[in-house]
Amino acid sequence: MHDIAIHVTGLKKSFKTTTVLKGVDFTVQRGEIFALLGANGAGKTTLVKILSTLAKQDSGSAKVHGFDVLDEPERVRQSISLTGQFAAVDEILTGRENLVMIAKLRHLADSRRIVDDLLKRFDLTDAADRRVSTYSGGMRRRLDIAMSLVGKPNIIFLDEPTTGLDPEGRLEVWKMVKELSITGTTVFLTTQYLEEAEQLADRIAILHEGTIITNGTLAELKKLFPPAKVEYVEKQPTLEDIFLAIIGKKEEK
Amino acid sequence: MEAIRKHSFSDMGIMLGRSMRHIFRSMDTIITVTITPIAMMLLFVYVFGGAIQTGMDNYVNYLLPGILLIAIASGIAYTAYRLFMDMQSGIFERFHSMPIAHSAALWGHVLTSLVSNAISVVVIILVALVMGFRSAAPIVSWLAVAGILALFTLALTWMAVIAGLSAKSVDGAGAFSYPLIFLPFISSAFVPTESMPPVVRAFADNQPVTSIVEAIRSLQASEPVGNDIWIALAWCVGISIVAYFFAMRVYKRKTA
Predict the structure, then answer these.
(1) Which of A82, A89, A90 lies closest to B97 in CB terms?
(2) Distance from C-alpha of A221 to C-alpha of A206, rounded to nearest angstrom
(3) Which residues contact B12 (CB under 8 A, 6 or more apart)?
(4) Lower CB density within 10 Å: C or N end of chain A?
(5) Of B196, B202, B201, B189, whose CA–CA distance to B69 is shortest?
(6) B52: which residues sit within 8 A by CB, 6+ positions away?
């Protein structure tokens, strides 16, 4: 059990007339970054909701941190943290108040120090006492993820963490996710961006029409396709490279 | 599980603290909840009051219970609004995926509704005192008034919970309160029901607001309350229970 963070077998879920999950199986190892890749409406969010005890499956089983999501939802909740698709932050409170609220709800001793540490780590110290409604999208997402880290949960669910962020914000989130996995936290990430999965994930699963059609490391997935041909192509900077270079120069001034 | 039960009151306290911050940081909610009823009280006492025959010397005394009910009815529109915003923003999902009592998030809103309405009621009573409201009622009567108002708030709060949870838009979340704000006008809150045409009077005499208003008025005047207080309590408790039942059903369906 201790090497396996999430174990899902034969998971099915349908809403009224549409079947969203048609028998999903996969395993996430402890400490890895697992990316679930899929188009909009593929059922990624439904899967995250079942794993985080917000929804119940029709059949099949799901174990998170060794606990069955139906039998022991309380223990599952003690082991996880969810960062949903829309930043779940309180706009009217300040960044610090948001973090303190979560620390109190998790009944942590020394919540002040924990909050100060997180603010520093997520580069929010200067904005800590401003209301979240004044934050940029990237800052909001950073706070959102910081809130999920309060109390050091074993497994973190990130449901499309970079959707709607500008390129800078996306890079910030990527950096944070990488740091998380260094500390041994298991990260379950959903995304619709192939590049994101490629950049971050130790293991990638593709959810398509209700089932996992492929599951493996990036190297394994690459082997499924014909070997790369060596071609000479002039590397043009992408618009993103240009954008980031210009922004970077401005900030140095 | 035991740890969760042990903490559920402090969790609710944290949720209450959060919503109270929302109230104090959005001035418009305080203004709507207290200033509008106060303006109405000024209007009725100093503009219409002279033409209204209530059989009581002091029209402020006559008017106050109805004004308090209007304040509460407009106050709970914000309860529905705050709940709706929490459902939309995903912060409820965060709370529900945390190891805290599932009901803490909802009860936080209910407590906030009770506390914030109590605050606006106190503010309005203070203004009424300035305008000439007088009562020699003993403390027991005032406690009874407080109890009735709290029960009335609770009944409307559970209705607000249904609206807040099931609304599809912000406007929808608050819209249910408009008829409630109007109920006191078709009751004995502003004028005695004797002056109304028979059909309207039949409605006014038998709707909850009239019995609540009459009970509060009698308590404030240290007069015997008669059956009004029992009818008032029956309405409040009955609406609370029915609304609570439906609210919990909606809550379970939306969050399970």
Answers:
(1) A82
(2) 10
(3) B101, B104, B107, B108, B111
(4) C
(5) B189
(6) B44, B59, B190, B191
Q: Judge contact between B131 and B86, C-beta under 8 A.
A: no
Interatomic CA distance for residues A84 and B255, integer angstroms: 14
Q: State which residues of chain B have pLDDT below 70.
A: 1-6, 256
Closest to B22 (Cβ–Cβ): which among A78, A92, A105? Answer: A92
From A48-52, A143-147, A183-187, A249-253, the region with the lowest mean pLDDT: A249-253
Count up the domains in chain A and report the number: 1
Give chain B's count of helices (H) and strands (E). 12, 0
ipTM above 0.90, yes or no: no
Question: Which of A41-45, A220-224, B19-23, B42-46 shows the lowest mean pLDDT across its residues?
Answer: A220-224
Residues 6+ apart with CB under 8 A from A150: A81, A99, A102, A103, A106, A108, A114, A115, A118
Distance CA B146, CA B135 (A): 14
Q: Domain ranges in chain B?
A: 2-255
| Secondary structure tally for chain A: helices H, strands E | 9, 10
* Interface contact A207, partner B, CB < 8 A: no
Structural domain includes residue A120: no
CATH code of residue A52: 3.40.50.300
Tell me the torsion sign for CA atoms A157, A160, A164, A169: positive
User: Cβ B18–A93 below 8 Å, yes or no?
Assistant: yes
A148 in any annotated domain: no
